[in-house]
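This part of the workshop introduces the protein records we will be handling. The question running through the whole workshop is how a given chain folds. To make this concrete, we reproduce a full record directly below:
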Amino acid sequence: MTTIPTPQAKPTSVRYEMLAWACSLSMLTYIDRVCIKEVARDMRVDLGISEAEFAWVFSAFSLAYASFEIPSGWLGDRFGPRKILSRIVLWWSFFTAMTGVVWKFSVDTGYSIPLPTGLVQWLGLPLPTSESAWTPMPLLINSLLFLMAVRFLFGMGEAGAYPNAARALRSWFPYGRRGLAQGLLWMFGRWGGSASVFMIAPVAFYFGWRGAFITFGVIGALWVVGFYFFFRNTPAEHPRVNEAELAIIQEGGRESQKPPPIAWSHILRSPSLWFLCLMYFCSNAGWCFFITWDVVYYERELGLGQDSLGLKLASGAPLFFGGIACILGGFGTDWQVRFLGRRWGRTLQGFLAYALGATFFFLALLTNDPWIAVPSLCLASFFKDFAMAVSWSTCIDIGHRYSGTIAGFMNMVGNFGQVFAPPIVKAMASRGDWDQALVFSGTMFLVSAVSWLLIDPRRVIVYTADDHARLKGEGTL
């Protein structure tokens, strides 16, 4: 008697639902982050904050965001990204709303701090009438410090969002599709930043800049409710994942039944980690131009009218085209890994992307014609973001089970680039020399390009030699 074989069940597609939640998180992250750039002019007027002082508001966010990346990434590896991402979004949503309640005030403490006059000039602060090598600066508690504190706490809360998202997607996608997943994640982030130009304007028009921050804070809190209900850390935790989908997800190998502890001594001795961090530091230092001072550049250097449609399009275009590059870069690295292997399938794309990004930053120097300068900057952003999926996929490659921690390490060092770059760019631009600001950003991209040649994504760096050998023997590495 012949037995008729049972047709194999069609794989479920729960992994794409999890990816959709991660992408919506990424979009929400950038909307809340870019909101302050779009309403900065009204904030400065209402709060009595100068343009130079506002640079330190950007840096306060970046300092906190960078400082808490590793702890948040480690917590995701330890307790699972579902709980940690829920905490992250609730925290940042609260302080997004709190940004809208900062008011104008100033209290003189009666003390002063002597600072070198040259430093005071570089910071863009007012100088005393008398000539002196040292300037006594009054120690004030005012709306600037309050705003910096709120944005610092906002950055502290948002830290770890992308490392935990990367950790979650590692569990839901096989090796050969991780570039695509990371590309989509970053595409929606960039498009969130690009769309925010048009989303924030009508909200701010009807409710003011304060209402815009409060509105987006409430939206983030509502998002957490749905995310916590539907999202799961691993396919094994989700009741709708069938065996066929699980087989696809585990294509790159299964998890060890006895996962080894993280080996910090090996991590910190890895050249790949440090060049990856240098690459991302310079990447962020160059790219932060697009989320801090680009609107001022378009107005003053390229002559685009304040609040004009041309200015809004120019402000959002680099992030929009960067989003397209993110998904194309994800497809590109997955394809290249199949043909070139893990080494050059990642690093060659990273090198070429940053080299071309630097080239177009330098091309923007040649003219003040917005029809040439803006497309050049869009292409600089495009090519830089063509390497985003490569950067985060490399964290997953070398971080294995502890990819959240490694991604947090890279993002921590990288975001210190955004701490220092806004004041540097502003100091250059305050002298009317926007060319120097563009040279600075392009040079940062060149250093990132060279760094990619010194990164090896083939070697997992988070285990001791014995644990590495055991996992390889089990077939889980």
Summary: Residues 1-7 have pLDDT under 50 and may be disordered. The longest strand covers residues 106-116. The domain at 14-125+136-252+259-474 is CATH 1.20.1250.20 (Growth Hormone; Chain: A;).
